[in-house]
Amino acid sequence: MVVAINAIVGAVAAVIINYLSDVLPITRRLSRPICLNCGKRYSFKEYLFSFKCSKCGNKTSIRVILVTILTILSCILLHYFPLEGLSFWATIPIVVFLGIILVIDIEYRVVLIQTSIFGLVFFLIYGVLLHNLWSTLVGGLAGFLIMLGLYYLGVLFNIIMGRIRGYAIEEVALGFGDVYVCAFIGFFNGWPTILATLLIAIFASGAFSLVYILVKVITRRYQSFSAIPYAPFLVLAGVAASYLFHS
């Protein structure tokens, strides 16, 4: 019975994640989702049940199905592996918010300033409840400053490589949105767990990048300085560190 309730909650959470991931990058506010092919606004029935535009027939992204499956699975797993110090219901807002960050950054390669500001306040509150004010503030500040340093190292690297190659390199290894993500993950994990979070994110992103480059080289589609979204690694590392170091 509990698992069934968790699955239903997961389905509702997935609808919220998909909806906000559809509208926030386009309008930066709560609004009716639109068809990206023709611009028609979806009706409630079209968006939730038919999964296609009645005007042009364009189907919604497969992302909707993937997010639904993964969110339901995550909510079921929370029954067996709860986050320490948080009830199931207190964890659901975290699942929704981090899901939105993941989807938008993977799909649009951006971390919105609106979600960043919300995340800072949101996880400051959770951090104080889970740890204490000192650990929370130091964790957030450390995450912000370390990622800020890495961000500017990336900018410097691009400038140097651009001069060597004779043209400007537009792609950046890290966006400034990643700095905000690291700050609010720092609030959530506190000090010194944010250090472990960053190490996990660096190793995980490095391993993924290596596999990504190898696949691109083998398929002859490799392009130098092609960027991958980094916020998902910070988010997943933050969750992993919560289980590994807060239990």
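Next protein, fold it too.
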Amino acid sequence: MYQIKGKIDSTNAPQFEEEILAAKPTEIDASGLQYISSAGLRVLMKLRKQVDDVTIFNVSPEVYEIFDVTGFTTILNVKKALREISVDGCELIGEGGNGAVYRLDNETIVKVYKSKIGIEGIDREREYARSAFMSGIPSVIAYDMVKVGDSYGVVFELLNSDTLGHAMKNNPEKLVEYTDQYVDLAKTLHSTEMPDGSIERVQDVYHRHIDNLTQWCSDEEIAIMHSITDEIPKVNTVVHGDFHPGNIMIHNDELVLIDMPGISMGPPICDLVATFRDMVSAPAGAEKGSIERSTGMPADLCIKVGNMFFMKYTGITDSEQLKEYFQKLGLLIAFNVILTVGGGSPKARELAPILMDKLLRGVVIPNEQTIKYLFKTL
């Protein structure tokens, strides 16, 4: 990232212009910038004419005011410097593939993203979450973005809130009530339609992940996975992508979503497969403690809630029929787990060669036509 420091005025603007126009950066770190005059701003205007998308990060409040009053915040993507916080000694509420959630105090929580996720990815998630909220999906609204060590975080106001997973674990007498709310939230998601272009389509997400698998897969195998993705129905209803109780908070007796990195538009089956993976399939064979860290519940409770969830969501109450339904989901899970490798899951990438042999070549490719059919009919 290109850095600018000190004061930029008429005395050093020519040198600044020569250096920055030669570099043509799209990202500029202004954490060391103390002042910029109109001469410096004109240099940035020249840069903007040569580079389509320029973002200036870590701008101090004083310098940000200069950008703002001169109208440059409408021309350039200018972001204020982030306040730095520590989560040392804070209660860990939940932990998943994209980060961890801590309680800062009685009024606020912070989601700390893993270092692989940069500001642009976090901003995209916040924008998608805002679009979902405006469409009627219960989700928390982020306050400010913060710096937490080498990572970034987002602060939310959630008074006396807890994750749904913790609540299910700590209040067994309310398990049925909580599961009913869990199902209702899923149905709200899966019946909410988003305007075209407001968020990504699930097919675009899947295609991007598949393109990241080239080091483990042949061109033919990549083409088969793209072909499966192309057969997924194009609908505008919401898919969360990681819909388990560890990503849901209870706030004023209402369930609200706090983790929406994979939100997209697609058919409900894309969510149901991931939920079955996290709540039924994975807990059955997971190492002790790993499931509870993500969902907030021990594995046996996950399986119990998962079964209740699918019976209530699908209306299937006969155990044999539910077993048949789960077997069909199992085929789609193989495809789903392969996509997590392309999505950058560190654990999945470590196991990538094994997963490709066992799931891609052993399950997905032999059942290509069936998987296409299930995506359309389940």
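About the second fold: Residues 319-342 form the longest helix (24 residues).
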